[in-house]
Amino acid sequence: MDSLVLFKRLSLFYGLSLFAQLSFATMQTTPYLAMHVQPKYAKLSAMPYANPNAPKGGMLSQSSLGTFDNLNSMNGKGSSTEGVNYLFDSLMDRALDEPRVMYPLLAEKVSYDPDHLKDVTFHLNPQARFNNGQALTAEDVKFTFDTYQTKANLGFQMYLSDLAKTEVISKYQVKFIFKSKNNVEMPLILASLPIYSKLDWKNKDFTRVTLQPIVGSGPYIVDRIDAGRSITYKRSPNYWAKDLPVNKGRYNFDRLKYVYYRNLDVSFEGFKSRQFNLYEEKNIRNWVTAYHFPAVQAGQIKKYKARLGTPLDIQSLVFNIRRSPLNDIHLRKALTYAYDFEWQNKALFFNQNRRLQSYFDNTDLAATGRPSAKELKVLKPFFAQLNPVMRQGLLADWHYPISDASGFNRQNLLVAQQILKDAGYVIRHNQLYDRQGKAIRIELLMQQENPQRELMPFVRNLNRLGVQVNLRQVDVPQYMERIRHQDFDMMMLKLPQTLTPGKEQAQFWGSAAADEAGNYNYSGIKNPAIDQMIEKIVAAKSREDVVLYTHVLDRLLRAGYYQILTYGKPERWFAYWDIYQQPQIKPKLSVGWEYWWVDGTKAKKLDQPIRKSDLK
């Protein structure tokens, strides 16, 4: 044989062998799930924000608004109950101060190739049990995800759309195969979802609303249901995972109770009369002025501020750009100048809120200043296809307009008028007309619980621009039906955001979601640049890449004037009857009340009547 041919064949053989070894070497099996980051707590016996010696006992009671009729929160039907997540375990559990890291729960380890992420295999803990004593196996996991993909609500099915199939490898091994080869978020999504019992659902309809107890493997089981009024859970006496590192010092309360109220005012009165013990205060006026009643003066109630490193909720006024007149970016930009946050914050919110400047506010994902060189490199291929208004916004050191807080907003309204004039709009007899001579009229859709006083200053400013606004307030079912079918001009929105963005961003801003009833792209955004940024975020293999592409996504969303970001507060406010203790170290990404416990001495003292000498 020709020596050169032999050499090439040998080189090919050894090259392929080496490649095979390298490919095999990249497959890793670890007792944690960490996507391109190093876990901090892989060798700890308990999480640092836990007190492993915390006493068990007592109750944590909280409030909720509205009502409930469904214990199966995953089918998207009816109103699911608060706390239902504590009935179920997931494959792995998130750390409360590490993004993209999860630790063992139902699965004791996981196998995957982080560089060629086409599948992931979870190795279940053989000790895992449902709360009826039944072993939890790979068949239950497969049943759960097959059910999610066929019977969950459509938005959730889209969330799992990259999952090709689920395979049972053995009794305690389950493999998930993906459609793509670069979805870094998918293993984290799969690991975080509740696992159901296949046997429990053998003769039940997953799509039905139900208050019948569901078999789970979590730390609590249903204790008592007062339909529509309250639900109480009790700590499972046979919880299989109580000694795992993620659970030591956790779930210390014997019972969790959620009491339902029709509105915040009644809920606050319920807290004052100790119908429940822990209250998240969302009314700024109450927080500043209402905590002077006897129990507070006697020191029986404590106020607590939790400042977390999580994104602030997206609170905004949404433009429906699918239809006229808000399909014009010039008009949307002008209307942005009519929103007077500074006066609103001073007059209504005691200067406790701050203006949102980003769709990822309060995190490193928020784009600030002018675009960096890396961001510009990512943006450059899209510039030619973008509207000039959008290009200008992308390159700016972005800040929403600032007023003098006088309530007149004169300077910003002059800017808005100039924007409209330059775009061909005209005002005649205090009415704004577009280039075709059509009067600009907008309906602003609101729920009954949305306070009109927050919107009236904005409406008045729009009227000064010649825009006629119909403030349409409807009940919750009608509101949900209208926004589900994109039947509105403008609406108010509150949407949670995440520190680890992934597939859910496609539901918020992706082109496919714009035409899907019941999805979250309420604005109707169809922008190829935004679609590609979402794909890059999903495929990113490092936190640095996630941050880079999210910065660009943030800039695109702002520069498109799809919504007017309004306000948020960087803290969560709580008041509680003083019977609880907390660990000294607080988690960064959660309030972490699951790690609190009842102080028996304080609880006994609280049962004593208030004396005049106790009042401050």
UniProtKB/TrEMBL annotation:
Keywords: Signal. It comes from the Bacteria. Residues 1-25 form the signal peptide. GO terms for molecular function: peptide transmembrane transporter activity. It holds the Pfam family SBP_bac_5. The keyword Magnesium does not apply. GO terms for cellular component: ATP-binding cassette (ABC) transporter complex; outer membrane-bounded periplasmic space. InterPro entries: Peptide/Ni-bd, SBP_5, SBP_5_dom. GO terms for biological process: microcin transport; peptide transport. This is Solute-binding protein family 5 domain-containing protein. It comes from Acinetobacter tjernbergiae DSM 14971 = CIP 107465. Residues 102-505 form the Solute-binding protein family domain. Coiled coil: none annotated. The keyword Signal applies.
